[in-house]
Amino acid sequence: MSAAVLLVALVAWPLIGAALIAVLGRSGEGDSSSGIDARTLALGVFGLEAVLAIVLAVSVHATGSAWLATADAAWIPEIGARFSLGADSFALVMVVMSALVLPFSLLATWNEVAKRRPAYFACLSAVASGLMGVFLARDLLLFYVAWELLLIPMYFVVGVWGGTAAPRAALKYFIVTTLGSLLMLVAVVYVWNAAGGISFAYDALAAARMSDAAARWCLAAFLLAFLVKAPLLPLHSWLPDAQREAPTMGALALGLKVSTFAIARVALPLFPAAALAEPMRGTIVALAVAGIIYGALLAVVQPDLKRLVSYASISHVGLVLLALFAFTPTGAQGAMLLMINLGITTSALFILVGIVGAQRGTFAIESLGGVATQAPLLATAFIIVTMSAIGLPATNGFIGELLSFLGSWRVYPVPTLVAIVGVVLAAVYLLSAMQRVVFTASADVRPFRDLDLRQSIAMGAFVLAIVWLGIGSAPMMRMLAPAAERIAARQLPEGRVNFQGDGPVALGTEGAR
Amino acid sequence: MNAPNVSGMLMLILPEVVLSVGAMITLLLGVSGADAGRSHRAAMAALATAVVGVVLAIGMLTGAPLAPGTTFIANDGFRWTLTALLCAGTGAAVVLTEAYDRRAGVARAETPALLLLAATGMTLLTAARDLMVVFLGIELMSLATYVLVAMHRTSARAAEAAVKYFLLGAFSTAFLLYGIALVYGATGSMQLEGIGSAVASGAKLPGLLMAGVALMLVGLAFKVAAAPFHLWTPDVYDGAPTAVTGFMAASVKAAAFAIFLRITAEAFAPLLADWHPVLWVLAAATMVIGNVLALGQQQIKRVLAYSSIAHAGYLLVAVVSFSAEGATALVFYLVAYTLATMGAFAVLVALSDGTDRPLVRQDLAGLRERHPWLALAFAVCVLSMLGFPLAGGVGFFAKWQVLQAALQASVPQQTLAIVLVLSSVVSGGYYLGLIAPAFMQSPVPAARPIPAPPTGVRAIAIACAVVVLVLGVLPSSLTRLAQRSAPSAFAGGPTVATTIQP
After folding, report:
1. Choosing a second label site near B168 at 20 to 30 A (CA), which of A242, A490, B331, B394?
2. What percent of chain A has pLDDT above 70?
3. What is the CB neighbour count within 10 angstroms for residue B33?
4. Do residues B341 and B282 make contact, with C-beta atoms less than 8 angstroms apart?
């Protein structure tokens, strides 16, 4: 199968799958209507998506171009929009990561959602299509459509299948992110118009002639859209609400690092000069660092386990942004590794929190406890995932954090030191939460069920990924190195790489390149 | 330009002839034959007439290149595209009003006949190039609509709405007529072209001309419900029978915008620097006021009334852009807006219980469980009004066109573009407030059982949603059509627009 077909299939299949699930699916037990269990269908859809992603990953070969695979077709010739997809190494790794997280998350949360399963999984499937579109788009209009495609199904996932406060949280999520993306739309029109109004290709738009001030305003609009969703500090309050109310798969899909990817892939390369302009860059770095500490402090005092994970991920996003805005190849590489690994680790954390919380009917840490004595597998998974979230060496979290700090140290020494304090705080809140949930006996003495077979398989996969990426991330780092150089130089994949400064760390590359 | 012979003249107003003859036939069918089914036969005749109107207009668009029109009737793509749109809207309104009236027990043959008469006025407005024809079209449309609002004679709310609409409508018509008289006095011409050239060569009585232009703009702003001339809209939309409200929100507004654009483009272009700032403020105020006031509404029709005011604001942005792109955006937007509005109102008609009790958000609760397809269609249409890509289909590209026109204007309108998107964010609040109960709440038992919606109503709702979705993925055909439909006044490029002050 050619790479182009695979790219199109990666974006289109989940949408087709959503329709299949909605039409053919049946809610499961107690639903007498004919059809296939929606969960089985969804597993098939997500499973095939994962297979497509893996086939794409192993079938592409490094070529002269940075694009490992491309697909291109006419879409709206009147305004120059094309259905144009492409994967560079960074996008490819994000695609594989997301495509693998989804089916295993589904296995782990098999029984979590009971009502209207076909619609639920159809929405999640549409979200998957949006994710792939954001990762793979090479056309700004297509990117925008994919970016917005994430929003509506996610709104329903949070609002319909969430907890009691869900409709309100979903509305907040929708309004805040719409504010960002509509201002981005004005910037999209502006850039497109400045580039002659004939093409949405990233590289054509990057060549648009605009005044410095216009470029800065446009970059600000793009960054606002992405940072609201990341989220950055003063814009973050929707995330804990939405993730707290959302079902597990919704919460973890909100946690996949789409927005930081979009910053690296779209916002920075489109406005290379404006990205360096102060005060924007300094403000973002300052807010990122403030977010690291603020998220960590809120997580320390958080009595609700699910919110704790949410605040932890706000703190982690700060690390990614600090490393990204250092504009060093090492920092960019660290940021990319962090995005990938946080996607895995945060998803695993939400799944575990969901499993524990569902058994007690609450996420209050004080009512949870004593997992270790009753559910050894669950406890083991909990410990390993927590270690990964802390960034312990030999887990996937370590190398990304280390490279981020190395990369940002040169440019921003003081913020980096503050960020390191944040990582220490992460050890405090994560370890204490783990200790209270896993080892301390709680007042609630109902027994915990251990992981069932499906959950064991899923958590086994997550643990495998955590350990494997922790000790054997060299191949991935080699893959990401050129993409990191481009991000640091704020270059599009097709642009000429031209940077000075420290090189990206590519372990074991001697003789390989 | 030679004066065409009689048959050529008739050809030029063929849709209007067909529609008015159709109206007569509809009326006759309403008083002949067996009592049972009279109103239904009349409605079918009206529907057929509207379909003929659509076919005629599309035939003109796709047939031989258009001959030049006369100095008082245009024969351009703008006219025929909007005529097709308005006839289609009228056809949908015929089906919806019949279903709604039948449920309320007041089905009469006069309703479809009046819809056709209103359509005659509206299609005249798309073609008018002479202020007499403009006035004729506006009066034909408005008088028929006043009566349509009052058709449910036992409903006090409808009567109140009709009186209010009639008084304010007559008032605004007086403004328009007075403006026409003053403009004629200042320029010595009733024809848009003649006024345009008289103004360009310097009017003898500039004060008189300015007063005339101002009065005409006020009259037109009333008709399109631009703030601050919007105050009649919520009450009238709320009190009118739901199906008629849909007709007013979609088609009457579209026709008013058609003539708004043509008058500004063909007659007042040389005065651009004078009226541009006025319309700029109107557009910004209309977007903000419509969207903000919609937030506080509980009744669905009032929400949609304020939302229609906001859409008038977006459309005014296209007018203010004053370019071929602006006209393209206006046509594109009107198509998208008509589809979304008709679809949404079809769902409301399906949900009405036959009384004139106002629908509130709670009536939508659990719609997903009661009518899953209608719920989906409603969500698509509402998201289309919000301008959401993919899920909202063509609504996104409509907003895109307006933004594009605003930023490509000879003096780029960044501020208006930003006001547009920020007020759209506000609109997210109330549009989702309509969708959320349909999907996130359980149905509440209705006080009166609501019969199953008629097939025609469901078909309109679902067809609108499907077209919205398809055009949302493949907007090329509509884009091309809209590009061909800019009035010929813009064909020479933005030369007239150079006088805009930023």
Report:
1. B331
2. 93
3. 12
4. no
- In sequence order, the 6+-apart residues with CB closer than 8 A to the CB of A241 are A165, A168, A169, A172, A173
The C-alpha angle A502, A506, A507, rounded to 5 degrees, equals: 130
Please give the ipTM for the structure prediction: 0.88
CB contact under 8 A, B391 and A179: no
Whole-angstrom distance, CA of residue A506 vs CA of residue A333: 9
Query: Considering only CA atoms, which of B74, B46, B16 is closest in space to residue B258?
Result: B74
Separation of alpha carbons B383 and B388, rounded Å: 6
Number of H helices, E strands in chain A: 22, 4
Calpha distance B502→B498 (Å, rounded): 10
Neighbours of A51 (CB within 10 A): 12
Q: Report yes or no: B116 and B26 within 8 Å, Cβ to Cβ.
A: yes
Q: Most B CBs within 10 Å: which of A11, A78, A123, A150, as the mutation test of the B interface?
A: A78
Query: What residue ranges of chain B have pLDDT lower than 50?
Result: 1, 492-502
Strands (DSSP E) along A15-163, which ranges? 25-26, 36-37, 69-76, 81-87
A126-165 b/e with 16+ CB inside 10 Å = b?
Answer: bbbbbbbbbbbbbbbbbbbbbbbbbbbbbbbbbbbbbeee
Cβ pair B400:A145 closer than 8 A: no
Q: In 10 A of CB B444, how many CB atoms?
A: 11
The residue type at A195? A
The span from the CA of A392 to the CA of A404, in Å, is 15
d(CA A324, CA A333): 8
Per the model's pLDDT, the better-predicted residue between B279 and A368 turns out to be B279
Using CA atoms, how far residue B284 sits from A132, B252, B291, B418, B419, in Å, is 37, 22, 11, 10, 7
Residues whose CB is less than 8 angstroms from the CB of residue A73 and which lie 6 or more positions away in sequence, other chains included: A82, A83, A84
Other C-beta atoms closer than 10 Å to the C-beta of A393 total: 11
Q: What are phi and psi of A37, to 5 degrees?
A: -50, 125
Tell whether A213 lies on the interface with B, counting CB pairs under 8 A: no
- Say if the Cβ atoms of A159 and B439 lie within 8 Å: yes
Residues B21-58: tens digit of each pLDDT:
999 999 998 888 777 788 889 999 999 999 999 999 99
Report residue A5 as tokens.
């077909």
Tokens of A339: 């995005």
Is residue B31 within 8 angstroms of chain A, CB to CB? no
